[in-house]
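Hi all, posting the design record for the shared folder.

TITLE: backbone redesign
STEP: 1 of 1
STRUCTURE INPUT:
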Protein backbone atom coordinates (compact mmCIF):
# COMPACT_ATOMS: atom_id res chain seq x y z
CA UNK A 1 0.00 0.00 0.00
CA UNK A 2 1.40 3.38 -1.03
CA UNK A 3 0.54 6.82 0.32
CA UNK A 4 0.99 10.29 -1.14
CA UNK A 5 4.13 12.12 -0.07
CA UNK A 6 3.61 14.21 3.08
CA UNK A 7 0.22 12.60 3.73
CA UNK A 8 -0.77 10.24 6.57
CA UNK A 9 -2.07 6.73 5.91
CA UNK A 10 -5.48 7.67 7.27
CA UNK A 11 -6.19 11.18 6.01
CA UNK A 12 -9.73 11.31 7.44
CA UNK A 13 -8.76 10.54 11.04
CA UNK A 14 -5.10 11.61 11.24
CA UNK A 15 -4.99 14.43 8.69
CA UNK A 16 -5.38 17.42 11.02
CA UNK A 17 -2.77 16.24 13.53
CA UNK A 18 -0.38 15.19 10.77
CA UNK A 19 -0.47 18.51 8.92
CA UNK A 20 -0.25 20.54 12.16
CA UNK A 21 2.90 18.63 13.01
CA UNK A 22 4.27 19.05 9.48
CA UNK A 23 3.70 22.83 9.56
CA UNK A 24 5.34 23.06 13.00
CA UNK A 25 8.36 21.16 11.68
CA UNK A 26 8.74 23.39 8.61
CA UNK A 27 8.33 26.48 10.82
CA UNK A 28 11.10 25.28 13.13
CA UNK A 29 13.42 24.62 10.18
CA UNK A 30 12.70 28.07 8.73
CA UNK A 31 13.31 29.82 12.06
CA UNK A 32 16.61 28.00 12.58
CA UNK A 33 17.73 28.83 9.03
CA UNK A 34 16.82 32.48 9.44
CA UNK A 35 18.63 32.53 12.76
CA UNK A 36 21.83 31.34 11.09
CA UNK A 37 21.53 33.94 8.33
CA UNK A 38 20.92 36.72 10.83
CA UNK A 39 23.84 35.58 13.00
CA UNK A 40 26.32 36.80 10.40
CA UNK A 41 24.17 39.50 8.77
CA UNK A 42 23.75 37.53 5.55
CA UNK A 43 19.98 38.06 5.51
CA UNK A 44 19.18 41.27 3.52
CA UNK A 45 22.79 41.53 2.25
CA UNK A 46 21.70 40.24 -1.15
CA UNK A 47 23.74 42.73 -3.20
CA UNK A 48 26.90 41.12 -1.78
CA UNK A 49 28.31 37.60 -1.93
CA UNK A 50 28.78 36.09 1.56
CA UNK A 51 32.14 34.33 1.93
CA UNK A 52 32.78 31.91 4.79
CA UNK A 53 35.09 29.30 3.25
CA UNK A 54 38.18 29.23 1.07
CA UNK A 55 36.14 27.70 -1.74
CA UNK A 56 33.57 30.51 -1.56
CA UNK A 57 36.42 33.05 -1.52
CA UNK A 58 37.85 31.63 -4.74
CA UNK A 59 34.45 31.45 -6.47
CA UNK A 60 33.66 35.05 -5.51
CA UNK A 61 36.89 36.22 -7.14
CA UNK A 62 36.05 34.30 -10.31
CA UNK A 63 32.91 36.37 -10.87
CA UNK A 64 34.83 39.45 -11.98
CA UNK A 65 38.48 38.30 -11.85
CA UNK A 66 38.96 39.89 -8.42
CA UNK A 67 38.06 43.42 -9.50
CA UNK A 68 35.51 43.83 -6.71
CA UNK A 69 35.90 44.61 -3.01
CA UNK A 70 35.69 42.55 0.17
CA UNK A 71 33.96 44.02 3.23
CA UNK A 72 34.09 43.12 6.90
CA UNK A 73 31.32 43.90 9.39
CA UNK A 74 33.53 43.30 12.41
CA UNK A 75 35.66 40.62 14.03
CA UNK A 76 32.61 39.08 15.69
CA UNK A 77 30.99 38.42 12.28
CA UNK A 78 32.25 35.14 10.84
CA UNK A 79 31.78 36.16 7.24
CA UNK A 80 33.22 38.48 4.64
CA UNK A 81 31.13 40.05 1.90
CA UNK A 82 32.28 40.48 -1.68
CA UNK A 83 30.86 43.19 -3.92
CA UNK A 84 31.71 42.57 -7.59
CA UNK A 85 32.79 45.53 -9.68
CA UNK A 86 30.19 47.16 -11.91
CA UNK A 87 26.44 47.01 -11.45
CA UNK A 88 24.87 45.65 -8.27
CA UNK A 89 24.00 41.97 -8.22
CA UNK A 90 20.53 41.30 -9.59
CA UNK A 91 17.95 39.39 -7.57
CA UNK A 92 18.21 35.76 -8.76
CA UNK A 93 15.14 34.07 -10.21
CA UNK A 94 13.29 31.52 -8.03
CA UNK A 95 13.82 28.65 -10.48
CA UNK A 96 17.51 29.52 -10.77
CA UNK A 97 17.79 29.31 -6.98
CA UNK A 98 16.05 25.94 -6.84
CA UNK A 99 18.19 24.44 -9.60
CA UNK A 100 21.34 25.71 -7.88
CA UNK A 101 20.23 24.15 -4.58
CA UNK A 102 19.29 20.86 -6.25
CA UNK A 103 22.63 20.75 -8.08
CA UNK A 104 24.49 21.38 -4.82
CA UNK A 105 22.58 18.57 -3.11
CA UNK A 106 23.37 16.18 -5.96
CA UNK A 107 27.07 17.12 -6.07
CA UNK A 108 27.40 16.47 -2.33
CA UNK A 109 25.83 13.01 -2.54
CA UNK A 110 22.28 13.96 -1.53
CA UNK A 111 19.03 14.35 -3.40
CA UNK A 112 15.51 15.65 -2.86
CA UNK A 113 12.59 13.30 -2.62
CA UNK A 114 10.91 13.22 -6.03
CA UNK A 115 7.57 14.53 -4.78
CA UNK A 116 9.19 17.31 -2.75
CA UNK A 117 11.39 18.38 -5.67
CA UNK A 118 8.39 18.53 -8.02
CA UNK A 119 6.34 20.57 -5.55
CA UNK A 120 9.29 22.88 -4.85
CA UNK A 121 9.90 23.52 -8.55
CA UNK A 122 6.20 24.14 -9.21
CA UNK A 123 6.18 26.69 -6.38
CA UNK A 124 9.17 28.53 -7.88
CA UNK A 125 7.33 28.66 -11.21
CA UNK A 126 4.41 30.37 -9.48
CA UNK A 127 6.76 32.87 -7.84
CA UNK A 128 8.41 33.62 -11.16
CA UNK A 129 5.03 34.24 -12.80
CA UNK A 130 4.75 37.40 -10.67
CA UNK A 131 7.33 39.09 -12.88
CA UNK A 132 4.75 39.82 -15.57
CA UNK A 133 2.79 42.14 -13.30
CA UNK A 134 5.70 43.62 -11.34
CA UNK A 135 7.89 44.97 -14.09
CA UNK A 136 10.26 42.02 -14.06
CA UNK A 137 10.38 41.75 -10.25
CA UNK A 138 9.07 38.76 -8.32
CA UNK A 139 9.91 39.49 -4.67
CA UNK A 140 10.38 43.20 -4.13
CA UNK A 141 8.46 45.93 -5.90
CA UNK A 142 10.45 48.15 -8.30
CA UNK A 143 12.82 50.34 -6.25
CA UNK A 144 12.19 48.36 -3.05
CA UNK A 145 15.00 46.57 -1.17
CA UNK A 146 14.69 42.96 -0.05
CA UNK A 147 14.61 44.19 3.56
CA UNK A 148 11.70 46.49 2.84
CA UNK A 149 9.86 43.78 0.91
CA UNK A 150 10.36 41.25 3.69
CA UNK A 151 9.17 43.58 6.46
CA UNK A 152 6.19 44.67 4.35
CA UNK A 153 5.03 41.08 4.00
CA UNK A 154 5.69 40.10 7.61
CA UNK A 155 2.53 40.30 9.74
CA UNK A 156 2.80 42.53 12.78
CA UNK A 157 0.98 39.81 14.70
CA UNK A 158 3.83 37.39 13.95
CA UNK A 159 5.59 36.48 17.24
CA UNK A 160 8.95 37.09 15.58
CA UNK A 161 8.09 40.52 14.13
CA UNK A 162 9.97 42.46 16.83
CA UNK A 163 13.02 40.22 16.34
CA UNK A 164 13.16 40.88 12.58
CA UNK A 165 12.51 44.59 13.13
CA UNK A 166 15.43 44.84 15.56
CA UNK A 167 17.63 42.82 13.22
CA UNK A 168 16.79 45.10 10.27
CA UNK A 169 17.89 48.13 12.30
CA UNK A 170 21.08 46.42 13.49
CA UNK A 171 21.81 45.22 9.95
CA UNK A 172 21.69 48.81 8.68
CA UNK A 173 23.91 49.97 11.55
CA UNK A 174 26.51 47.27 10.85
CA UNK A 175 26.66 48.07 7.15
CA UNK A 176 27.03 51.78 7.92
CA UNK A 177 30.30 50.87 9.64
CA UNK A 178 31.47 48.25 7.13
CA UNK A 179 35.21 48.19 6.45
CA UNK A 180 36.63 47.61 2.96
CA UNK A 181 39.53 45.14 2.84
CA UNK A 182 42.39 44.76 0.42
CA UNK A 183 42.65 41.33 -1.20
CA UNK A 184 45.63 40.29 0.95
CA UNK A 185 43.90 41.36 4.16
CA UNK A 186 40.72 39.52 3.20
CA UNK A 187 42.68 36.37 2.36
CA UNK A 188 44.49 36.54 5.72
CA UNK A 189 41.18 36.54 7.59
CA UNK A 190 39.74 33.51 5.81
CA UNK A 191 41.37 30.67 7.84
CA UNK A 192 39.91 31.95 11.11
CA UNK A 193 36.53 32.73 9.55
CA UNK A 194 36.32 29.26 8.03
CA UNK A 195 37.30 27.65 11.35
CA UNK A 196 34.55 29.50 13.18
CA UNK A 197 32.08 28.77 10.39
CA UNK A 198 32.70 25.03 10.76
CA UNK A 199 32.19 25.33 14.52
CA UNK A 200 28.91 27.10 13.83
CA UNK A 201 27.81 24.26 11.55
CA UNK A 202 28.57 21.68 14.24
CA UNK A 203 26.72 23.68 16.90
CA UNK A 204 23.78 24.20 14.56
CA UNK A 205 23.44 20.44 14.10
CA UNK A 206 23.54 19.96 17.87
CA UNK A 207 20.82 22.56 18.39
CA UNK A 208 18.73 21.16 15.55
CA UNK A 209 18.68 17.64 16.96
CA UNK A 210 18.62 18.73 20.60
CA UNK A 211 15.64 21.10 20.45
CA UNK A 212 13.38 19.13 18.14
CA UNK A 213 11.92 15.89 19.50
CA UNK A 214 10.92 14.88 16.00
CA UNK A 215 14.38 15.38 14.52
CA UNK A 216 15.95 13.67 17.51
CA UNK A 217 13.63 10.66 17.22
CA UNK A 218 14.21 10.38 13.47
CA UNK A 219 17.97 10.59 14.03
CA UNK A 220 17.92 7.83 16.65
CA UNK A 221 15.87 5.60 14.37
CA UNK A 222 18.30 6.09 11.49
CA UNK A 223 21.23 5.42 13.82
CA UNK A 224 19.66 2.13 14.87
CA UNK A 225 19.03 1.14 11.26
CA UNK A 226 22.64 1.89 10.29
CA UNK A 227 23.92 -0.02 13.31
CA UNK A 228 21.83 -3.07 12.36
CA UNK A 229 23.10 -2.97 8.76
CA UNK A 230 26.68 -2.79 10.05
CA UNK A 231 26.11 -5.69 12.47
CA UNK A 232 24.85 -8.01 9.71
CA UNK A 233 27.56 -6.90 7.27
CA UNK A 234 25.21 -5.22 4.77
CA UNK A 235 26.20 -1.58 5.27
CA UNK A 236 29.10 -1.62 2.78
CA UNK A 237 26.88 -3.16 0.08
CA UNK A 238 24.29 -0.42 0.62
CA UNK A 239 26.97 2.25 0.18
CA UNK A 240 28.47 0.57 -2.89
CA UNK A 241 25.09 0.25 -4.62
CA UNK A 242 24.07 3.85 -3.90
CA UNK A 243 21.05 2.78 -1.84
CA UNK A 244 22.63 4.79 0.99
CA UNK A 245 24.65 7.95 0.44
CA UNK A 246 26.75 9.48 3.21
CA UNK A 247 28.77 12.70 3.22
CA UNK A 248 31.22 14.04 5.77
CA UNK A 249 31.35 17.51 7.30
CA UNK A 250 33.28 18.82 4.28
CA UNK A 251 30.69 17.51 1.82
CA UNK A 252 32.88 14.64 0.59
CA UNK A 253 31.23 11.30 -0.08
CA UNK A 254 31.88 8.59 2.52
CA UNK A 255 32.47 5.22 0.84
CA UNK A 256 33.71 3.15 3.78
CA UNK A 257 31.22 1.36 6.04
CA UNK A 258 33.74 1.40 8.90
CA UNK A 259 34.21 5.17 8.63
CA UNK A 260 30.45 5.70 8.54
CA UNK A 261 29.89 3.44 11.56
CA UNK A 262 32.53 5.30 13.56
CA UNK A 263 30.99 8.65 12.62
CA UNK A 264 27.55 7.46 13.77
CA UNK A 265 29.01 6.26 17.06
CA UNK A 266 30.81 9.56 17.65
CA UNK A 267 27.64 11.49 16.89
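Okay, here is what came back for every position:
SEQUENCE:
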Amino acid sequence: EMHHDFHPGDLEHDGEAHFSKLIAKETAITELTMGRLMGNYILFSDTYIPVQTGTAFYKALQIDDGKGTFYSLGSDVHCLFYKPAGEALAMPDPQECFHSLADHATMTGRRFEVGYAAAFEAFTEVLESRKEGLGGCWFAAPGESSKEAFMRRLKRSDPAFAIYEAYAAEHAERWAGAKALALDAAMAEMPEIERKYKLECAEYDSVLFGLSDEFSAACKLEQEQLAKLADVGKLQAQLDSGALVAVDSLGAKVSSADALSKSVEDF
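COMMENT: The chain has a mean pLDDT of 84.
Let me know if anyone wants the other runs.
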